[in-house]
């Protein structure tokens, strides 16, 4: 199959490549760019393991063609660490509150939670549960994931207030 | 602060040993997407494998035409059974003593069965080529009902063993029959039933479900033709067993096979078995001389790799009129699918189903299990449980409820009357187990008090009154469960898989500067072994957990072990860790005595050091001792500080728990709302309370899924109706409640640190608790038993059939 020229920004870096237009964004990231944080769990947009941030929206990269992401700005979990390489507040809170076990859903969870807290910086527990309902976890029962996101929201809000 | 200035408590705290809610060392990698799962592995020149699968549940394969597929640019080869037959690899042995087709050999026996294996340069080309393989089928009559499978004129599913009267587990009485397994005293139990005041009888069905870990199964096989070594990366819960099986099947010498389990994205029993994808990948790598990756998609995972449960459990329970249970009888019809690929210890074809007397002192019992072939996927694995323990727990906890209804008695009180008392341990059960320790009454009373059981019953009575008065359309159900697990398989005298005794192992090396590496025969799939095993060791050898690397999953470096499933890691490998630690400590004692110029018996271990008895100011820290072991010539003591332990447990461990679930049921919509869930677990000595709580949350959520909607459903011609996450219920954060966790601590008397294992308890106890809650809501209207899963439609149907819709 003939290939198309694809150009996008991934985790702040410009990337260019030739890819079959039918290639899924998740395979482009994982196999062409070696960005293996986002995972494949269902291939039907249900589980959210492949969640990435695309132009400021959470999308499931298993059902986006690379052609659709041409020119886009994509952030994966790898792009969420602090500039000095330390864990972000969200990543740290997942660790602090035992919000992960096998780690397979975690990149998608954190990437989605990152966007959720942009959309709603001060969510209630119910809003977190609803806002995260496109991301499935088989290990944790979500209780600690929810706790981690609420703790991160509190810490980020406190830091924001302190800065003002 | 210098070491000398620290108090004893500060030194103990610094170790982060047993009982510490230590943060997980794994998480720094996982939270930034730096895990290394099998699909992340990329080797030079790697090819991709993909399967052609059967659309039919039962059909003859008349022909397979691979020409068009092979002609597609980028396709390297297409394998069929005809290609594997000369190698003797078109069939493979199963863990249950049966055999299974690797690729369809003349017929297919379940939808999704592997028919041909395409090898191509990338996964897209492989998928294209799968579409180009032409297979001609001739449909055969399909059997999806295990009772129909045993009818005299039922079609024969397994032509390969037609009329073979002897199976791996004794006589077969029908061509679709696999085994009959009997435990206990049949005649005595029947006599008890015949003479009992009260007998309650029920058919309890535990439906077919699937472990469905978020990461599917997969592998990368890499045959290095230069040095003759095969490296097999894969999602293996038992890497050493896979190495031995791979050697036996392929004929490659075992020292030339290296099996590596990288990070695993959840297992829950699904990744114990050996699947055709592994065999085909190895063959493909040998044939092509290149690494070959095969990773299932979700549909393949659900339709072809190991399912769980599918037990039809006919029960009779006898009691006196005041509620003392006198006998239990159970006959189970077990649907094993097309091949018997259960992963049970060899002598237990129905696993530990004979723990079905549960937490109760039942003097007389009898169990028989018939294994049956049907046109469904093979499996029957221990899905987040120890070999059919969830089935057993569901059975007895339902039978207790059914008996309570028959007696007109409160189900909490009925349990109380029949619990094995604390003074009866070690307790010999009627079906052959020796329960190690327990204090069921104490756990039960704590649970009843925590939820205000009397208050809940009063609220429920008020609700019922309001319902009858037309003031509400919601009923309230209170689900109770007291479960006893049997985990930690197991003693080599009665537990083996393919002849491999189910011991486990730990090897420890202390480095000169006082840090350490420990390697184990197990493999974490999210349980946090790198965190918790270091904690066990920290307490045993006085080296901080933060200074101990735990490594698992590479058969070239780890000592031999049987892997992680059936909650066996802590009971078996955790014990090996403690025992290896004690060997380190014994040698350290000799070194310390030499350095302190006293007799070995004059020093004693104190948190992180050896001190001279009666003179605590004279000591050598473990760090000092470690260095001395490398730089001092000590008479009679070998240099270095290393130890290995292979631990053969003397008995299983028996974790238990008391759970209460409160549910509101909307009779008009069938919607159930879990208002409260209280889970008290007793897993013996607690290693890391944070991780225990996380395991309980997760296990309860899988239990919620199973009880309330998750099933592998088939239509009458064997089509899988729940092959994607659209239809296979997996609760999201929005559908999952918060849980209240609690504990009591009754250490195992035979385990070196008294730990029992916990990862599977919540799944074992959770399913009956959720299910009992739904049943309880309808008890006043005459419901005794309805099948899981209790999804909205089924709950609505129950209400409808009971006449609650007017």
From TrEMBL, chain A:
Q: Where is the 2Fe-2S ferredoxin-type domain?
A: 4-80
Instruction: Give the superkingdom in one word.
Output: Bacteria
Gene3D superfamilies in alphabetical order: 3.10.20.30, [2Fe-2S]-binding domain
- The answer, when asked if Chaperone is one of the entry's keywords, is no
**Per its UniProt record, what CDD domains does this chain match?**
fer2
- What's one GO MF term for it? 2 iron, 2 sulfur cluster binding
Keyword line: 2Fe-2S, Iron, Iron-sulfur, Metal-binding, Oxidoreductase
Protein name, entry field: 2Fe-2S iron-sulfur cluster binding domain-containing protein
Organism for this UniProt entry: Stappia sediminis
Automatic annotation (TrEMBL), chain B:
* Reactions mediated catalytically: CO + a quinone + H2O = a quinol + CO2
- Supply one GO molecular-function term: iron ion binding
Protein purpose: Catalyzes the oxidation of carbon monoxide to carbon dioxide.
Q: Give the transmembrane region(s).
A: none
For this protein, the Enzyme Commission number is: 1.2.5.3
Superkingdom to which the source organism belongs:
Bacteria
Per UniProt, residues of the Aldehyde oxidase/xanthine dehydrogenase a/b hammerhead domain are: 32-141
| Keywords of the record | Copper, Metal-binding, Molybdenum, Oxidoreductase
Q: What is the lineage of its organism?
A: Bacteria, Pseudomonadati, Pseudomonadota, Alphaproteobacteria, Hyphomicrobiales
InterPro entries per the UniProt record, alphabetical: Ald_Oxase/Xan_DH_a/b, Ald_Oxase/Xan_DH_a/b_sf, Ald_Oxase/xanthine_DH-like, AldOxase/xan_DH_MoCoBD1, AldOxase/xan_DH_MoCoBD2, AldOxase/xan_DH_Mopterin-bd_sf, CO_Mo_DH_lsu
- What is the source species? Stappia sediminis
Q: What is this protein called?
A: Carbon monoxide dehydrogenase large chain
């Amino acid at each position: 199959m003939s290939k198309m020229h694809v150009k996008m920004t991934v985790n702040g870096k410009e990337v260019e490549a030739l890819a079959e237009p039918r290639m899924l964004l998740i395979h482009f990231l994982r196999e062409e760019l070696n960005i293996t944080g986002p995972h494949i769990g269902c291939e039907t947009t249900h589980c959210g393991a492949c969640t990435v941030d695309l132009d400021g929206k959470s999308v499931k990269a298993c059902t986006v063609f690379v052609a659709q992401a041409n020119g886009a700005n994509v952030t994966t979990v790898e792009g969420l660490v602090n500039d000095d390489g330390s864990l972000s507040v969200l990543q740290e809170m997942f660790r602090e509150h035992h919000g992960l076990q096998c780690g397979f859903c975690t990149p998608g969870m954190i990437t989605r939670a990152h966007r959720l807290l942009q959309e709603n910086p001060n969510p209630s527990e119910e809003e977190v549960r609803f806002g995260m309902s496109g991301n499935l976890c088989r290990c944790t029962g979500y209780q600690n994931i929810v706790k981690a996101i609420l703790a991160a929201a509190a810490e980020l809000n406190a830091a924001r207030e302190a800065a003002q | 602060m210098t070491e000398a200035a620290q108090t004893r408590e500060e030194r103990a705290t610094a170790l982060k040993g047993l009982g510490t809610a230590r943060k997980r060392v794994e998480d720094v990698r996982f939270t930034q997407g730096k895990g290394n799962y099998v699909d992340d592995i990329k080797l030079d020149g790697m090819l991709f494998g993909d399967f052609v699968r059967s659309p039919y549940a039962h059909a003859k394969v008349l022909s397979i035409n691979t020409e068009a597929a092979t002609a597609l640019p980028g396709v390297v080869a297409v394998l069929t059974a005809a290609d594997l037959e000369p190698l003797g690899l078109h069939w493979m042995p199963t863990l249950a003593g049966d055999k299974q087709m690797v690729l369809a050999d003349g017929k297919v026996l379940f939808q999704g069965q592997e028919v041909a294996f395409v090898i191509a340069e990338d996964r897209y080309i492989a998928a294209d080529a799968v579409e180009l393989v032409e297979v001609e089928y001739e449909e055969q009559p399909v059997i999806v009902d295990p009772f129909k499978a045993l009818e005299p004129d039922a079609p024969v599913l397994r032509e390969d063993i037609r009329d073979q009267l002897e199976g791996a587990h004794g006589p077969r009485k029908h061509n679709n029959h696999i085994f009959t397994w009997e435990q206990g005293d049949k005649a005595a139990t029947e006599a008890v039933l015949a003479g009992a005041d009260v007998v309650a009888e029920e058919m309890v069905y535990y439906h077919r479900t699937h472990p469905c870990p978020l990461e599917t199964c997969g592998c990368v096989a890499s045959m290095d033709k230069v040095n003759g070594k095969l490296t097999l990366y894969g999602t293996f819960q038992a890497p050493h067993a896979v190495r031995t099986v791979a050697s036996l099947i392929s004929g490659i010498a075992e020292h030339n096979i290296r099996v590596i389990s990288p990070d695993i994205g959840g297992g829950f029993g699904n990744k114990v078995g050996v699947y055709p994808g592994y065999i085909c990948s190895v063959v493909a790598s040998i044939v092509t001389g290149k690494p070959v990756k095969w990773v299932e998609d979700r549909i393949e995972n659900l339709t072809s790799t190991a399912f769980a449960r599918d037990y039809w459990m006919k029960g009779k329970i006898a009691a006196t009129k005041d509620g003392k249970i006198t006998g239990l009888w159970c006959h189970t019809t077990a649907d094993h699918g097309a091949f018997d690929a259960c992963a049970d210890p060899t002598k237990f074809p129905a696993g530990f189903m004979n723990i079905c007397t549960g937490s109760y002192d039942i003097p007389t019992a009898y169990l028989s299990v018939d294994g049956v072939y049907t046109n469904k996927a093979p499996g029957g694995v221990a899905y987040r449980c120890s070999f059919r323990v969830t089935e057993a727990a569901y059975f007895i906890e339902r039978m207790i409820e059914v008996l309570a209804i028959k007696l007109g008695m409160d189900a909490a009180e009925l349990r109380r009357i029949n619990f094995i008392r604390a003074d009866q341990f070690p307790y010999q059960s009627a079906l052959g187990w020796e329960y190690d320790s327990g204090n069921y009454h104490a756990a039960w009373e704590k649970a009843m008090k925590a939820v205000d059981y009397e208050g809940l019953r009063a609220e429920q009575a008020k609700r019922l009154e309001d319902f009858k008065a037309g003031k509400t359309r919601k009923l309230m159900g209170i689900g109770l469960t007291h479960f006893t697990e049997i985990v930690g398989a197991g003693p080599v005298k009665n537990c083996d898989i393919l002849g491999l005794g189910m011991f486990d192992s730990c090897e420890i090396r202390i480095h000169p500067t006082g840090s350490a590496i420990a390697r184990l025969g197990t493999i974490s799939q999210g349980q946090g072994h790198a965190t918790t095993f270091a904690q066990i060791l920290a307490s045993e050898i006085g080296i901080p957990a933060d200074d101990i690397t735990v490594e698992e999953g590479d058969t070239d470096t780890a000592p031999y072990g049987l892997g992680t499933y059936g909650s066996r890691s802590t009971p078996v490998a955790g014990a090996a860790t403690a025992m290896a630690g004690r060997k380190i400590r014994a040698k350290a004692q000799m070194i310390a005595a030499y350095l302190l110029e006293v007799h070995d018996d004059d020093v004693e271990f104190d948190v992180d050091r050896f001190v001279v008895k009666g003179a605590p100011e004279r000591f050598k820290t473990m760090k000092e001792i470690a260095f001395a072991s490398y730089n001092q010539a000590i008479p009679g003591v070998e240099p270095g500080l290393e130890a290995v332990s292979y631990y053969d447990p003397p008995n299983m461990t028996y974790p238990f728990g008391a759970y209460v679930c409160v549910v509101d049921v909307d009779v008009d919509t069938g919607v159930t709302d879990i208002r409260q869930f209280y889970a008290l677990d007793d897993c013996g000595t607690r290693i890391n309370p944070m991780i225990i709580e996380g395991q309980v949350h997760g296990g309860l959520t899988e239990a919620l899924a199973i009880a309330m909607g998750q099933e592998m459903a088939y239509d009458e011609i064997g089509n899988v109706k729940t092959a994607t996450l659209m239809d296979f219920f997996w609760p999201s954060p929005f559908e999952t409640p918060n849980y209240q966790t609690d504990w009591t601590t009754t250490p195992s008397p035979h385990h070196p640190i008294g730990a029992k294992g916990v990862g599977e308890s919540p799944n074992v106890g959770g399913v009956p608790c959720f299910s009992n809650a739904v049943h309880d809501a309808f008890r006043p209207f005459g419901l005794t038993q309805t099948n899981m899963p209790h999804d909205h439609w089924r709950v609505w149907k129950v209400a409808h059939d009971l006449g609650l819709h007017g």
